[in-house]
Amino acid sequence: EEPVLLAELKPGRPQRYDWKSSCETWSVAFSPDGAWFAWSQGHCVVKLIPWPLGEAELCKTSERKSRGGKAEARSRGGAKEKTLECGQIVWGLAFSAWPAAEEGDTDPTCALGLPCLVLATGLNDGQIKVWEVQTGHLLFSLLGHQDVVRDLSFAPNGSPILVSASRDKTLRVWDLSRDGRQVQVLAGHVQWVYCCSISPDCSMLCSAAGEKSALLWSMRSYTLIRRLEGHQSSVVSCDFSPDSALLVTASYDACVIMWDPYTGEQLRTLRHVPLHSTLDYSSDIHSSSLRSVCFSPEGLYLATVADDRLLRIWALELRSPVAFAPMTNGLCCIYFPHGGFIATGTRDGHVQFWTAPRVLSSLKHLCRKALRTFLTTYQVLALPIPRKLKEFLTYRTF
């Protein structure tokens, strides 16, 4: 079943033609609980939209934006849409739940001991601005990078650890519980760093730069574990499966490689071949260079966006897409945390929302996912169980 376009959000400001007018949507993000959506809509602005919005309301929001109206979307709880004026072109976005305040803490951003949601924004001048979502207040300005902050990733376990990837060829680790103190600088890339992703179990960090290899780091010691070599061109995007057992990397070579991050083994290559001419929506665009890849929340699907103007959805155990849809100059994609649809950002500053396959995970997959959440590949291989079961648990039965 092909993805269906549910709605499209458009920038509410007229396009400008100086350098600040950059209107590409380089990053989109959902909060971990799915309550907010953030959109780097260009013009140095981030839009924060409360969620969930029904399809009808989503379409109304799209219409308001297309007309440049000032009406504000409201969630069921009455939260209002917010505009964050960042002062610089925004490249990266990441949400995290702020730790609950301890007794006696007078910090107004975390009153009543309730966890506060924060949004980190990576900017054109190397700054990282961290905002409190409910109020729209600026909490921190993190300084250290010497060039564009291209991507951001919070530790998924809710700890206040933030990793940033920059065109200055470094990754930096920040601790927001210590006033945004810089904890570590990770140097190892020789090109711009495009993407960073922390594994759901918070043990590993993958980074992708304008190089043919991706780097895998330890989140415990902040040391390099290994280089993942196999692509023929620049690696630009990476993502871990929900159980941390798989890692995917996407490259300008039009391929996605699926890795076992524990062993460095290549498990599968997904090639973005041109569609049949009668189905090819890209007409004069023949390049299938990848821009973004992401796992679905249950870990059974992948979504990819490429320069051939197609959104593709892949089933974990198949080598060909199970669905695709024509889109306009896609740059990024992300699944809704509870599944069901995908948000994509485009080069013209728009966001498109697409339906995605809904699937009831098999008991086998749920068991594998539960086990792999706390067992490494080496630990699985050491278990006194049949070989076929080991192959299934290590995703080697494709």
Which key phrases capture this entry?
398 residues, mainly beta, Methylamine Dehydrogenase, Chain H, four-stranded antiparallel β-sheet, 4 helices, 41% strand, globular
What would you note in describing this structure?
The chain is 9% helix and 41% strand. It is mainly β and 398 residues long. It has a single domain (5-57, 79-101, 113-274, 285-360), classed as Methylamine Dehydrogenase, Chain H, CATH 2.130.10.10. A hairpin with a 5-residue loop joins β22 (290-295) and β23. The model is unreliable at 59-76, 100-109 and 277-286 (pLDDT under 50).
Concise synopsis of the structure shown:
With 398 residues, the chain is mainly β. The chain contains 4 helices and 28 strands.
Set down the secondary structure blueprint.
Elements (H helix, E strand, L loop, with lengths): L4 E5 L18 E3 L5 E7 L2 E6 L4 H12 L15 E4 L4 E8 L19 E7 L4 E5 L4 E6 L6 E6 L6 E6 L3 E6 L5 E7 L5 E6 L5 E6 L3 E6 L5 E6 L5 E6 L6 E5 L3 E6 L4 E7 L18 E6 L5 E6 L3 E6 L5 E6 L3 E6 L5 E6 L4 E5 L7 H10 L4 H5 L5 H7 L5
Antiparallel strand pairs: 1-28, 2-3, 3-4, 4-5, 6-7, 7-8, 8-9, 10-11, 11-12, 12-13, 14-15, 15-16, 16-17, 18-19, 19-20, 20-21, 22-23, 23-24, 24-25, 26-27, 27-28
Q: DSSP strand (E) fraction?
A: 35-45%
- Count of separate DSSP helical elements: 4
Domain count, please report it.
Answer: 1
Structural class: mainly beta
Q: What is the C-level CATH assignment?
A: Mainly Beta
Mean pLDDT: 85
| Helix content, binned percent | under 10%
Backbone CA Rg: 20 Å
Describe the global form: globular
* CATH architecture label name: 7 Propeller
CATH topology: Methylamine Dehydrogenase, Chain H
List segments where confidence is low: pLDDT < 50 over at least 5 consecutive residues: 59-76, 100-109, 277-286
